[in-house]
Amino acid sequence: MDNKPGKGGPLEEFTSRPRLCIAIAVHDLAVTRRFYEDTLGCRVVDERAAGLTIDFFGCELDARLVATDSAPVPHALPRFGLVMGWEDWHRAVDHLNYIGVRYLEAPRFDARGTPDERAEFCIADPSGNCLGFAAWRVKRI
């Protein structure tokens, strides 16, 4: 795929280059944190009761806490997608709404009005793979 400026590639639409985001299920946040920080040398950039956001060598790793005896929610895990610029995320939502895309997880906001404000939505590809798109109001990674 050719993403050079002026060639009409998909990156031409973004005002800033998006980063890859991968979501995984984890059973223990403390153990997960120690592994990614101490073993791999990664940095936790956000911690909440339900998970960790980890700078995984320039990609965003969203480690979500799940019970060991529960099955993952189909559209929550596993998934991959992009962490986008705040304005690009809003433009993407406007475009998807305009063309009538059905959401697995409708656009939503967490921690509104705080420095931790995050926007997110999920859609499915034709095979049912979940793609998540997120943006932080304040850049994290």
Can you walk through the features of this model?
- With 141 residues, the protein is α+β, with helices and mostly antiparallel strands.
- It has a single domain (18-136), classed as Roll (2,3-Dihydroxybiphenyl 1,2-Dioxygenase, domain 1).
- The protein has helices spanning 29-39, 86-99; strands spanning 19-26, 43-48, 51-56, 59-65, 79-84, 103-110, 118-124, 130-136.
- Strands 2-3-4-1-5-8-7-6 form an 8-stranded mixed sheet.
- A hairpin with a 2-residue loop joins strand 3 (51-56) and strand 4.
- The chain is globular and about 45 Å long.
- The relative contact order is 0.18.
- Compute the CA-based radius of gyration: 16 Å
DSSP, total strands: 8
Number of domains: 1
From the N-terminal CA to the C-terminal CA, the straight-line distance is 26 Å
What's the number of helices?
2
CATH architecture: Roll
Q: Spell the H/E element sequence.
A: EHEEEEHEEE
Highlighted features:
2,3-Dihydroxybiphenyl 1,2-Dioxygenase, domain 1; 8-stranded mixed sheet; 2 helices; 141 residues; 8 strands; alpha+beta
